[in-house]
Amino acid sequence: MTFASHVSRRLLLAAGAASLALIGVGPASAEDTMKVGLVAAMSGQSAKSGEAIVRGLSLALDEINAKGGVLGKKLELVVRDDESNPAKGVIAARELVQREKVVAYFGGIDTPVSMAIVPFANQSKVPFIGVWAAGTKITRNDAPENYVFRVSAVDALVDIALVDYAIKKYGAKKPGMILINNPWGESNEAGLKSALDAKKMTAAGIEKFEGGDVDIVPQLTRLKDAGADALFMVANVAPSAQVVKSLDRMGWNVPVVSHWGPAGGRFTELAGPSAEKVHFIQTFSFSGNSNPKATAVFEALKKKYPEIKSAADVTPAVGIANAYDAMHLTALAIAKAGSTEGPKIREGFYQIGSYDGLIKTYSKPFTPDNHDALSPSDYLFTYFKGAEILPLTN
Amino acid sequence: MGLIAKLRAYAMPATVLLLTVVAALYAARAEGYVPFVLAMVALTCIVGVGLNVLVGLTGQISLGHVGFYAIGAYTVAILTLKGLSFWLALPLAGLIAGAIGLLLSLPALRVSGPYLAMITIAFAFIVQHLTIEWRGVTGGSNGLMGLPAPVLAGKLFTEREMALLAIGLAGASTYLFHRLAGSAWGKAMVAVRDAEVAARSIGLNPVSVKAAAFVLSAALAGIAGGIFAALIAFVAPDSFPFSQSILFLFACVVGGAGWVLGPVVGAAITVVLPELLSQLAEYRLLFFGLLLLVVLWLAPEGILGTLARWMRRIDPRPAEPGDVAGFLAAASDKGALEVGGIGISFGGIRAASQVSFTAEPGKVTSVIGPNGAGKTTVLNMIGGFYKPDAGSIRLGGQELAGAPAWKVARAGIGRTYQTTKLFETMSVRDNVLIAMRRGRLGSMLAFAANAADEAAAEALIDFVGYRGPIATAAGDLPHVDRRLVEIARALAMRPRVLLLDEPAAGLMAADKDALSGLLRRIADLGIAVILVEHDMRLVMGISDHVVVLDAGTPIAAGTANVIRRDPKVLAAYLGGAEMRARGRDVPWDGSRDAVLDVIDLVAGYGAAPVLQKVNLQVRPGEMVALIGANGAGKSTMMRALSGLLRPVQGDVILNDERIEAIEAHRIAARGLALVPEGRQVFAELSVYDNLELGANTRSNVDYAAEIEAVLTRFPRLRERLDSRAGLLSGGEQQMLAIARGMMAKPRILLLDEPSLGLAPAMINELYDVLADLRDEGITILLVDQIAVLALAVADRGYVIDSGTIVRDDSAAALASDPDVEAAYLGHAEAAQ
Amino acid sequence: MLTSAIISGIGLGSMYGLIALGFHITYVVSNTVNFAQGSAMMLGAVLGYTFGVRYGWPMPLAMLAALAVCALFGLVVERILVRPFVARGSNAWLMATVAAGIVLDNAVMFTFGKEPRGFPSDWAAQPIRLFGAGVYPLQLVIPLVGIGIAGVMHLLLRHTRRGKTLLAVVQNPDAARLMGINVHRTIAISFMVSTALAGLAGLLIAPLFSVSSEMGTLFGIKAFAVAILGGMGSAWGVVIAGLAYGLIEALVTSFLGSVYTQIVVFSVVILALALKPNGLFGHAAINKV
Q: For this UniProt entry, which segments traverse the membrane (chain C) (predicted)?
């Protein structure tokens, strides 16, 4: 099996690196490379997200290096596992900046980890680019000199879009929330509440569930009894599937409007046919994408990672796409800065003009007042048809 | 104290200081993220020290310390965000964590082992969920950010200063542990861990001792958490995952639980190792897990524990004699112990009722009676382990009935146990010293004993007759010495009453004589001695007053001479006469082909073998006795033959098959059944189940018929057939153990000390059974401390001395040999 | 709402009970527990998926093969992670089995993949109506399997001679050896049974849930809580505690709201142990002074 041999080869490399690390010899770092870092969950529940980010970054990095790198130097990616633990994330960020001397580094899926890194990033004056975590305050952190950028959705804006969609599409009057009990769920709870407030609406109920919960019928029954006429769902793909299966068992046919969690995996395989009824928000999808850049990147992915055979294997696509564009944007910022000094790179981000990216064509993506490259106009609603994600046209 | 000893006393503080200074200098100069990593090592070390108090000293496990760490962190985060100074918030973090630790200790201390692990796990989860749900205060899942950095004397703390603070506190807490471990509190924690029952009987209140450990441990974790919050300037529930608890425990265990520097080593490994592995990115946890396993494998007692095992040596100095009378006189205001009409029932069965007697100071009062008569129950009521349903127990006017054991002990009642209960990991000297506190532990930082205490302890150890090194761990002592040290420990409390539960059990004649003298001398110092004992020679020799119990009620009381002739006592207890055993009517004459042939057997436990080239034979249908002094190697022999002790050298041949290299269960299947010393019945299983298990090696067993046959031979077992074996009296358990051995229908039956702890009448009954078995043609190898009985019932005998067979003759010849009699048959006159 | 909560609770509770039976069996035989039990459950589900779905083996064969490997894992845990420590009188087996769980979870993550997969089953496709609430047939099977196994284990341990040899081992290993009982083998078998039970639980839960390398962690902890709550010593106690635990979870969620579920459940565990230190159905060991 190619997959197995691939794994064993990587394990062997890792073992070699471990023994080197133990005797205190780091890999030789040549003078002609420039390091960029990644602090993300590489193990545990969110390991898949870390893998997707690494793929997106590596792909972009290969393209950049093939064209001679940046400022005449090849880029090198240094990856650290934060185990979804903010404290470990801070240590990893410090290590990347202070020992590995990265010129910029990327963040992973977990909002608390990114939040914990933000003060250090602003204090050490090395740009930190979020490619997934959607917590609003990560980029809007009130620092006088903000070194945190993002190429990803923002919860507060996603939530407005979700509420709009539920009203427009389903005429929802009393929607309920079914949220994963983690920081992401909590962040969206706040976002959805204020989005509903803006529409002078209140939620029928707000229910939380754990990632390991098998049966979510009790929570859903509460929402049903409270008269919910639509559900906002915020959870990763596997827990989202548990919600759909529980709805199935209850025989409750209610519209479900979801954050992008279902896009993170094989939603229909996990949740069964009812999965197709869930409408969820997206910033990017390979399937049904006519953009030639998307086709090219998908081919490159298949070549670099042989275990990818169809669009269904490229999950979560948003992670790959955000990371890919973020890497390119960062390289552009460094090129604009003409320097590897943090403050200059920060200025470089503001000077990026137009960049033809995977998600869209960016035009002045960053300004001192806006550190988010994506905006609500980039969000689209999608659904699963079999293993494919298809856009919804409304 | 000599110069070297003085230097040694300063070695540990100096090492701690040196490590702290080196770490601080490194943190002060190093660049980059090194100070940060050092700070994390120091914080893990502080939590590790806290866990070391819990795990290393009191032997409790906590998988929930991340809960206390989180409580400390959130306390500092919330308070400093509200504007309180960090320097006030940090001690508060420790206090709050400690207070919650006290609260948690209420349920936690009622349970142990995996149950305690679960309570602590549940606690950690509750804290985690509270930090998520109590959003108004904790900021919910996304936590609290932007904590102000501490300021001291106008200096804003960066991670470098935080690292210095953490390192300083880590050094201080390590030193604190060093002092604590040397203090009476530390010793009390170890005592409670080693033998909680015995700890109560020297006046220690296990609840307060364990609670103190819990509180201290929680407070240290809270303080570390507080610094952590200020260091990261951000707290969120995800920073305190359950896995962190395991890492903390690992930091404590891998360095060596109980060792002062254990957490330092452990913290360095658990924090630095993942940093070294950080380049592995997603493979880090996998390798970290594997490395943890390797470290545990190489050093299961922790790194320091394993190192210490290699370097261990014991100061051979014995105790110095001293003024015991003066020491004991200090507390003795001569009041009698008055026991008035006490009684108790267990589950409707009256174990004792209407027991009354007075134990005068300076007198030996003995309580005798058949096994199961309620003697130990009476001792347990006096000692405060059972609460009597009725009656009073007064010492010098103070009512003690129903008071807990530790209060009874502090009131001046010391005791020893049927099976000695020493603090196994503590030295002989420390066993005595901790008892001397009478439960008053003083400061946690003061050394446990001053020079006067140590001199008094040594005097007591010398007084009871222990001549070995006083630094020996109690767990390594031979049986006789365990008895003596236990008595010394009880005396160290300056008791007015001393309760002794079968102190002579398992002792040889000479040792019993010495014990007898010791008890007399103790009484002569003005202490009321209460003795429960089966050895009639001992009892009759030294008792001033004897109380006889049968079935829980006193049937007679008076001087030894009166009791000796009381017909009721003779019938119930002494079996109508003194000890006897029936010999074979016709001398044995059977096949000379041995069932069991032992050739040049060498066996032992450590470097020096206990058995040195032992040769022995048992022929079919023959009963052979093996006699010798305590420690001569009799039980070792039985364990080696049955396969419990491996490896052994030499040849052991059972029915023409060599068995010296095979395991115990295979030997049992080949037809050798050992009835082990101390009965070893399956306490939680019913009598019936025990009997069934006896036939485990056989197939096609007609259980109903065979158990019926066994019950006919041991009628006492019939009425107890369905009760748990552990609830049987000693004599009944012994009968059950033999019956269980019989169920195997063995080719040869080995009996190790069957009469141990039995009342005289019971011993007679037992020996009648043995004689019957012999007459029925069962092959038996018998070891018994009452050599005169063993030789009376056996056909042949071997005398073993220092691991070698020194005589081998017919039993009759050995029994009449004056040399053998002098050395081993001290009971001859008692058994006339 | 009550009916559906009760049905949910029984379904969940019997899963916890099934894994908890594994803790019970090693504890009554050897006084140790395998803290990698949750990982064994995950292994059962992952291997069932790999053999049955990825390799396309017939499902009964795939399940048997998965259980066999789980049992083998139990054997390995006992041989190299428990026995060496117990033999030296160290309780480092606790840390060692925890570490084994970490290693197994991560090793599976790299071989099986980081993505949760769906385990198709006809028994969890179409819900049937029961007292007005919908359930998958599999949800009814799990309690039956749990109660059935508890019954078999109870009969085996308390009423058969072979079972009593298991109980003898923990009470007095030396005496058990003298009765001709192979103590090492008995303990090894108990660990194999324990991990096989966890694996079975994994296989049964997989179609209701999803298969991934970290699915066992939370189940392992909850099952441990259940085993402790039931008193470790009694198979019935463990299963009943499992049902109680599942019911409390479902009822609290239904009537108080999900915010309070974990806090209430874990508080109940602490409270129950404070009142009954040997678990709800355990009894104190005989301890003569």
A: 6-28, 63-81, 93-113, 133-157, 187-209, 221-248, 255-275
ipTM: 0.93
Query: Does residue A306 belong to the interface with chain C, where contact is any CB pair within 8 Å?
Result: no
State residue C188's pLDDT score.
94
Residue A324: is its pLDDT beyond 90? yes
Q: Domain A156-282: give its CATH superfamily.
A: Response regulator (3.40.50.2300)
Burial of C122 (0-12, 13-18, 19+ CB in 10 A): exposed
Nearest CB to C273: which of B107, B283, B292? B107
Q: Which of B114, B122, B250 sits opposite C95 (nearest CB)?
A: B250
For C58-114, what is each residue's pLDDT tens digit? 999 999 999 999 999 999 999 999 999 888 877 788 889 989 999 999 999 889 888
Which DSSP symbol is given to A261? G
**B741-789: per-residue pLDDT in tens?**
999 999 999 999 898 878 788 888 889 999 999 999 999 999 987 888 8
Domain regions of chain A by residue span? 31-153+293-376, 156-282
Min distance A353 CA to chain C CA atoms (Å): 37
- Whether C214 sits inside 8 A of A45 (CB atoms) is yes
Instruction: Indicate whether A5 pLDDT > 60.
Output: no
Q: Produce one character per residue of B600-617: b if its CB has 16 or more CB atoms within 10 Å, e if not.
A: ebbbbeeeebbbbebebb
- Substitution target from B280, B286, B290, B292 for chain A, most A beta carbons within 10 A: B280
Q: Is the distance from CB of A254 to CB of A231 less than 8 angstroms?
A: yes
CA distance B385 to B503: 19
More confident position, B483 or B314 = B483
pLDDT tens by residue, B529-563 = 999 988 888 888 899 999 998 888 898 899 988 88
* Domain map (residue ranges) of chain C: 15-124+131-214
Fold matches, A31-153+293-376 and A156-282: yes
At B260, the pLDDT band (50, 70, 90 cuts) reads very high
Averaged pLDDT, B212-218 = 95
- Residue B657's DSSP bridge partners are B654
Report chain B residues whose CB lies below 8 A from the CB of A181.
132, 141
Q: Closest approach of chain A CAs to the CA of B278, in angstroms?
A: 6
Residue with tokens 């760490």: B69
What pLDDT digit, counting tens, does each position of A122-131 carry? 999 999 999 9
Is residue A22 pLDDT above 50, yes or no? no
Nearest Cβ partner for B665 among C95, C182, C288: C182
Alpha-carbon dihedral B547, B549, B555, B557, rounded to 10 degrees: 0
Sequence letter at residue C253: T
Output the CA–CA distances (angstroms, integers) from residue C69 to A17, C44, C186, in the order listed. Answer: 31, 8, 19
| Contacts with A87 from chain B: Cβ below 8 Å | 228, 232, 239
Which of B74, B141, B245 has the highest number of chain A CBs within 10 A, making it the mutation to test binding with A? B141
Q: What is the mean pLDDT of residues A21-50?
A: 74
Which residues of chain A neighbour B238 with C-beta distances below 8 Å? 84-86, 110, 112-113, 182-183
**Chain B residues with CB inside 8 Å of C276's CB?**
none
Which class in CATH covers the domain with range A31-153+293-376? alpha beta
- Spatial separation of the C-alpha atoms in residues A256 and A229, rounded to whole Å: 9
Q: How many CB atoms lie within 10 A of CB A123?
A: 13
Q: Go through the domains of chain B in sequence order and give each one's CATH number.
A: 12-277 (1.10.3470), 325-574 (3.40.50.300), 578-671+747-832 (3.40.50.300), 681-745 (no CATH)
Residue A387: what pLDDT?
81
Within 8 A of A17 by CB-CB distance, chain B residues are 279-280
Question: Does residue A25 register a pLDDT over 60?
Answer: no
pLDDT of residue B678: 84
Query: What letter represents residue A108's amino acid?
Result: G
